[in-house]
Amino acid sequence: MSLLESYILTSIKNLPLAAKTTIDGFMSGANKSAAKGTGMEFSQYRTYMPGDDLRWLDWKMFARSDRYYIRESETETNISLRLLVDTSASMDHRDGNYSKMEYARYLAASLAYLANMQGDSVGLYTLKEGGIFSLAARQGFQNLNRLCHELEQAGPKGKFTHPVHYKDIYSGGRKKELLVFITDMYQEKDEMYKLLDLLNALRHEIIVLQIMGKNEMTLDYKGYTTLEDLETGATIDIKAGAPKTYKDALAKHLESIRHELLSKRIYHRLLIMDQPIDEALRDFLYKRSKGY
After folding, report:
1. Would 35 be classed as within a structural domain?
2. I need a surface site. Which of 58, 138, 194, 271 has the fewest CB within 10 A?
3. DUF58 domain location, by residue (predicted)?
């Protein structure tokens, strides 16, 4: 099954990726990226790759070498989308047709496709226990295919990335980006908040898409009486009357996450996995386009 499902792409193709942002020059439905061409400071050549814009082929280089080269400039695109995907073991939680990891893959691939279609560059970080995998933000369908391949190989296993690895995320990178963090917000010692604080300090705009299973929301596990933590292995028995207590505690927990992210000026959206992915994306993108 392809991550780029046609029914999802058809559903979101006419929606702007975002409307309000702190990134300079970002405008709803009129992204001013794709900034390569004549009249700009020349930087380097690179080998042509399928999916590259043919307008930037250097025909003089072709005449001299009989090979195709793309002429790149120093000018950066106005918009760069960076997808950060939680690949820890808690993302192996399953509800209905999807695990959280599968749901996250579809979300990320669809947003990457939309950014690519709008002419924006898109990159990827997969966050895992042993470190962070990085795919540079680029334009073109070859980059999109590579991103989807990496998503298919990603997790879920282990714990969330240790803060010691966070320093590697933007070492050498200064360009402001639109960051979409796809996660279940399962953390032991506020390690995710530390990550978000780092990204905030770099003045990126951040969106957190929190994925939860419907069975997590209702504590409905169809006859199971013992639950196991996918990351620590700890177990807990479900006792009579637990659902009511659990729901109250969960509501407070989700509200604390929402409040914490709001205090950091981070957009937060809770996605429940019983909602079809195309509907969840369409609803999220529509509300972003309206500024809420």
Report:
1. no
2. 194
3. 44-244
